[in-house]
Amino acid sequence: MGKIRDILKKLGPGLLFAGAAIGVSHLVQSTKSGADFGLGLVWALIIANIFKYPFFQFGPKYALATGESVLHGYKKLSRNILIIYFVLTIATMFSIQTAVTIVTAGIAKSISGGIFSLEVWTVLITLFCSIILVIGKYKTLDKIIKYIIIILAISTVTATFIAGREFEMDINMIQIFPNDSIGIIFLIAFMGWMPAPLDVSVWHSIWALEKKKTLKDYTLKNSMFDFNVGYIGTAILGVCFICLGYFVMYGSGETFSDSAGAFSNQLIEMYTSSLGEWSYYIIGVAAFSTMLSTTITTLDASPRAMSETTKLILDNQNKNGYLIWLTILAFGTITIFFALSSQMGLLIKIATILSFLTAPFYAIINYILISSENTPKINRPTKFMHLLSICGIIYLLGFSIFFLIKGI
Fold this sequence. Notes:
mainly alpha, Amino acid/polyamine transporter I
């Protein structure tokens, strides 16, 4: 038990990454993939995880190797890169935050028996997360995320195993590529947030430095182990969610609703139809915890990154930057929600596609930074990682161009 406790103690940013990643991309996009395409898009999940791996890894690696976040590294490359990052974040952070919050609110409404409306739940969740972050800060996130991820992993793997055992049709492993615009748009949206938007690499570098403050012996080696646990775990659970969608809904004639409340009911019923009605609240709480972890990690990360970005661009040390950006994001999220509350599907598509189209920027800049003289030579990429990075950049650019030509 002592050894397990020591391992858990050294985990943190990697599980925060998992908490941010295992949300809309898994609960929504992966289950929809299984329900609509069976196991036909597993290839897309695998490719997205492989080709994005280097760029996510470079975030915490640069931070622990240099003692500064990648945002400082961006400034060393060029102040203009920071300005581009600022603009891209402004363009995406509100839609991303609203997308994850609306799903969380939908699940809360479902498991509470509709005691509050979706609108009230959205406001309550946003305010609750904001208060937790202002009072508890990183330490609170670091403590609660471990238990949330463990609960989610156990419940998801168990549900997948039972659903697979009760699946009556022959399992079809044939991989497909959508040939119509609707299918292509879904594919890009699916890959856009699988396992997460690439700007999470910036967040991860900041979380790694925060972890270093709370655990002095949190080394680069610990960080890479922590990162790999979180990253591989998100990939495995992504496959599980595709399988659940396939085993429970594929060929049933049912489709997932674009309404947050209706989708949440379908999602929880998908689990309980596999595990039994006794599991309704257990699964509901696990799903809610998962989305709450995504909501709170994204609500923490964007203001933290934007606060640091504005300090670096303006060369000032505003101590209230985090609080200001947290307030802006919270109010912006609530405002967008009330404008698009019935359009969860559209909102998620917008957020995920924007994330995919901005991914090449983060991939290229992270690769340039980790390969530059700003990174100690011993911590620069190996030949294999150089090759994988180049392949990843080609993949991201290629699919972005393909979407702009075929998907619009």
